[in-house]
């Protein structure tokens, strides 16, 4: 895996590795194998360690060198994502008979956590794409699975998940986009907001109202780009997640074949929520990757930066701060992996556990990345240093796929409705 | 020709790890340190798999000599496309003392046993930088060797190898069976794909001891001491060219 860039360094090794690290702090963040108490490969099977290794290598070689450019120039890295799909990252938990890799939720979490160290924004989009592919794989009939999944697994086509509207975010079940059946088509009217990939992707998994009010009136339709009546709003300017475009998705008398409906009428909300359970683990995993990378960056910086006659690593406050960051990281990771296992096994606590994992990990990891930035001092605020991008990119994880407030709703409901 | 290629893969400390010398100066810290496949071995595996994909050879067998953990390295080779693995188990003190001479004896024995058409190795390992195993293996087998290969092409029962040498590039044609060692620019190793990693689980890895091959791994070398490289000294700034020449003469450089 691109031994070339690594070996070129070893082959041409004359001056100390230290100065190289200092000059290229952005790229050196992929130092692996140090700080073994936070090593994400602990407790994994040999096979999972192999998956993780491929993902880490891919992140270090194909994503990390471009992370800043993709952010600053707002590039949607189609070719890189397709390379990832060649390795099986396009439909990680989609079944193999339609081109997926057929892995577990835990395998998926491990993979996204590793990829995220290379670029959070791109990995997060890939996780959304994976979620859509899974929804079609799981709730679609055989025609739909065979029509859509193979292209999605190879990322020949990209997907977007459309639930949120200008008037319904947390209150998702109150969505208004209507789908009136006329013959063998549904006519869609309405708009979706904040759609990741919107305008650049090919397939839109849209939750819309075919029946009465509330969740039972919602169905799930797959809308293909180019369908007349499907248009997009302007590309939003965001604080982070800049390697994926975000746009409003607008339906004006957009006719979608009834054969594109996933599952039954009225099943759409349930499909959407089931997709989100996995999506929440994935987003939490992306936060874990960012936090892991940030802890390593902070650690490297503390060992190098000197003030008051010694390296910052001799300062007890910073030592303690780093210890707290590491502890929060490992605690978050354990919760996310447990939730992934629970979801895989369809345990009764899976839904609240996924919400707990998303709530805890995204909050803790943001604090970790933020602290890592603080430890860098003024340098942490410069875009030459990767840590600020991790902070900006994972800030939104506390908001989307269900705000952390909604996560609390789900958890408290689970506690208070038990007999 | 058997169409079988033997590829040697070594488990070494990961290239990105900061190496630390043990406090007793007897060696380098390896406990709890991340290990992975030697980068030149990855290139060797990639070349073998490429030959198989071109249908020029039939089977790629990955071999590793070392403790239990060497099996992880073999699994990586299997995930890249090798067909089966052989783990020659060497552990404890024997493993600490394992060097090119013993490994080449093992590889030579296996090459004969497996009736290999080619043995492909990395040119050197990044932990000891010996650059000896390939050459020794060829000598023990009395086979031709194409070392520092940056290009390999099979032509009938011969192999054309472009070698990277100090003066540039040298092209040689050698008979098979032969030993090749991979240099940096031979190819870019592929990422293992998720499906291949899963398929690798089902591929066979056979376990054996050096004694099973009639090889004695006793070492003829004793490591006396391992030290860190000397700290980089501060430089000296000079004002004029004359000063520079003077300083160079002073330190005996010219």
From TrEMBL, chain A:
Listed GO biological process terms: branched-chain amino acid catabolic process; lipid metabolic process
Record EC number: 1.3.8.5
Keyword Oxidoreductase (UniProt): yes
Any one GO MF annotation of this record: short-chain 2-methyl fatty acyl-CoA dehydrogenase activity
GO cellular component terms, A-Z: mitochondrion
Active site: residue positions: 401
The entry's keywords: Branched-chain amino acid catabolism, FAD, Flavoprotein, Oxidoreductase, Transit peptide
InterPro entries: Acyl-CoA_DH_CS, Acyl-CoA_Oxase/DH_mid-dom, Acyl-CoA_Oxase/DH_mid-dom_sf, AcylCo_DH-like_C, AcylCo_DH/oxidase_C, AcylCoA_DH/ox_N, AcylCoA_DH/ox_N_sf, AcylCoA_DH/oxidase_NM_dom_sf
Entry protein name: Isobutyryl-CoA dehydrogenase, mitochondrial
Cofactor(s) demanded: FAD
Record domain Acyl-CoA oxidase/dehydrogenase middle: where: 161-254
Top EC category: oxidoreductase
Pathway: Amino-acid degradation; L-valine degradation
Acyl-CoA dehydrogenase/oxidase N-terminal domain residues: 45-154
Annotated catalysed reactions: propanoyl-CoA + oxidized [electron-transfer flavoprotein] + H(+) = acryloyl-CoA + reduced [electron-transfer flavoprotein]; (2S)-2-methylbutanoyl-CoA + oxidized [electron-transfer flavoprotein] + H(+) = (2E)-2-methylbut-2-enoyl-CoA + reduced [electron-transfer flavoprotein]; 2-methylpropanoyl-CoA + oxidized [electron-transfer flavoprotein] + H(+) = 2-methylpropenoyl-CoA + reduced [electron-transfer flavoprotein]
Domain Acyl-CoA dehydrogenase/oxidase C-terminal, chain residue ranges per copy: 266-416
Function: Isobutyryl-CoA dehydrogenase which catalyzes the conversion of 2-methylpropanoyl-CoA to (2E)-2-methylpropenoyl-CoA in the valine catabolic pathway. To a lesser extent, also able to catalyze the oxidation of (2S)-2-methylbutanoyl-CoA.
Family listed: Belongs to the acyl-CoA dehydrogenase family.
Gene3D superfamilies: Acyl-CoA dehydrogenase/oxidase, N-terminal domain (1.10.540.10), Butyryl-CoA Dehydrogenase, subunit A, domain 2 (2.40.110.10), Butyryl-CoA Dehydrogenase, subunit A, domain 3 (1.20.140.10)
Automatic annotation (TrEMBL), chain B:
SMART domains: ETF (SM00893)
Biological process annotations from GO: amino acid catabolic process; fatty acid beta-oxidation using acyl-CoA dehydrogenase
Lineage top rank: taxon: Eukaryota
Transmembrane segments: none
GO molecular function: electron transfer activity
Gene3D superfamilies cross-referenced by the UniProt entry: HUPs (3.40.50.620)
Gene Ontology CC terms, in alphabetical order: electron transfer flavoprotein complex; mitochondrial matrix
Signal peptide coordinates: none
Role: Heterodimeric electron transfer flavoprotein that accepts electrons from several mitochondrial dehydrogenases, including acyl-CoA dehydrogenases, glutaryl-CoA and sarcosine dehydrogenase. It transfers the electrons to the main mitochondrial respiratory chain via ETF-ubiquinone oxidoreductase. Required for normal mitochondrial fatty acid oxidation and normal amino acid metabolism. ETFB binds an AMP molecule that probably has a purely structural role. The electron transfer flavoprotein serves as a specific electron acceptor for several dehydrogenases, including five acyl-CoA dehydrogenases, glutaryl-CoA and sarcosine dehydrogenase. It transfers the electrons to the main mitochondrial respiratory chain via ETF-ubiquinone oxidoreductase (ETF dehydrogenase).
Family, similarity comment: Belongs to the ETF beta-subunit/FixA family.
Name the record gives this protein: Electron transfer flavoprotein subunit beta
Organism whose genome encodes this protein: Betta splendens
Gene: etfb
């Amino acid at each position: 895996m691109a031994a070339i860039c690594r070996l070129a360094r070893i082959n041409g090794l004359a001056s100390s590795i230290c100065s190289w690290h200092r000059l290229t702090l952005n790229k050196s963040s992929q130092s692996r194998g140090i700080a073994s108490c936070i090593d994400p490969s602990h407790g994994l099977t040999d096979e999972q360690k192999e998956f993780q290794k491929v993902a880490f290598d891919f992140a270090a070689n194909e994503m990390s060198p471009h992370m800043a450019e993709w952010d600053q120039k707002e590039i949607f890295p189609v070719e890189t994502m397709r390379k990832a799909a060649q390795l099986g990252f396009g439909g990680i938990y989609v079944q193999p008979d339609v081109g997926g890799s057929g892995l577990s939720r835990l395998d998926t979490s491990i993979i996204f956590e590793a990829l995220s160290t290379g670029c959070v924004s791109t990995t997060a989009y890939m996780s959304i794409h994976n979620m859509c592919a899974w929804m079609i794989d799981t709730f679609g009939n055989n025609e739909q699975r065979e029509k859509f999944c193979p292209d999605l697994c190879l990322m020949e086509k990209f997907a977007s998940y459309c639930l949120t509207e200008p008037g319904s975010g947390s209150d998702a079940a109150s969505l208004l986009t209507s789908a009136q059946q006329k013959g063998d088509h549904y006519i869609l009217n309405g708009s979706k907001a904040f759609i990741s990939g919107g305008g650049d992707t090919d397939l839109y998994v849209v939750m819309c109202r075919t029946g009465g009010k509330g969740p039972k009136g919602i169905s799930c339709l797959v809308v293909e780009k180019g369908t007349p009546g499907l248009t997009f709003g302007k590309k939003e300017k965001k604080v982070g997640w800049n390697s994926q475009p975000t746009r409003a998705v607008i339906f004006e008398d957009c006719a979608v074949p009834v054969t594109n409906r996933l599952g039954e009428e009225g099943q759409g909300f349930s499909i959407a929520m089931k997709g989100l359970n996995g999506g929440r683990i994935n987003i939490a995993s992306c936060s874990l990757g960012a936090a892991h990378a940030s802890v390593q960056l902070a650690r490297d910086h503390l060992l190098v930066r000197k003030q008051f006659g010694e390296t910052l690593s001799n300062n007890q406050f910073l030592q303690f701060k780093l210890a707290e960051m590491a502890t929060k990281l490992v605690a978050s990771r354990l919760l996310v992996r447990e939730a992934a296992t629970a979801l895989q096994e369809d345990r009764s606590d899976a839904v609240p556990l996924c919400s707990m994992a998303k709530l805890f990990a995204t909050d803790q990891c943001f604090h970790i990345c933020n602290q890592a930035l603080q430890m860098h001092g003024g340098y942490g605020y410069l875009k030459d240093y990767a840590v600020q991008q991790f902070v900006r990119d994972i800030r939104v994880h506390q908001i989307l796929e269900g705000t952390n407030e909604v996560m609390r709703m789900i958890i408290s409901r689970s506690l208070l409705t038990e007999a | 020709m058997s169409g079988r290629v033997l590829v040697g893969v070594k488990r070494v400390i990961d290239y990105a790890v900061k190496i630390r010398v043990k406090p007793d100066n007897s060696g380098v810290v390896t406990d709890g340190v991340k290990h992975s496949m030697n980068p030149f071995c990855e290139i060797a595996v990639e070349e073998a798999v490429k030959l198989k994909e071109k249908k020029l050879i039939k089977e790629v067998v990955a071999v590793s000599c070392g403790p239990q953990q060497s099996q992880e390295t073999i699994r990586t080779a299997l995930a890249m496309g090798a067909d089966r693995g052989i783990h020659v188990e060497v552990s404890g003190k024997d493993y600490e003392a394992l060097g090119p001479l013993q490994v080449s004896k093992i590889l030579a024995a296996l090459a004969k046993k497996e009736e290999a058409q080619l043995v492909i190795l990395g040119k050197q390992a990044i932990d000891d930088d010996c650059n000896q195993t390939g050459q020794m293996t060829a000598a023990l087998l009395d086979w031709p060797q194409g070392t520092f290969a940056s290009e390999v092409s099979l032509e009938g029962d011969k192999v054309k190898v472009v070698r990277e040498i100090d003066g540039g590039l040298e092209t040689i044609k050698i008979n098979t069976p032969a030993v090749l060692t991979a240099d940096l620019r031979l190819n870019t190793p592929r990422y293992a794909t998720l499906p291949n990693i899963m398929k690798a689980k089902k591929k066979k890895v056979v376990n054996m001891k050096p004694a099973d091959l009639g090889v004695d791994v006793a070492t003829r070398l004793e490591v006396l001491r391992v030290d860190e490289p000397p700290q980089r000294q501060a430089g000296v700034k000079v004002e004029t060219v004359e000063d520079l020449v003077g300083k160079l003469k002073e330190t005996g450089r010219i």
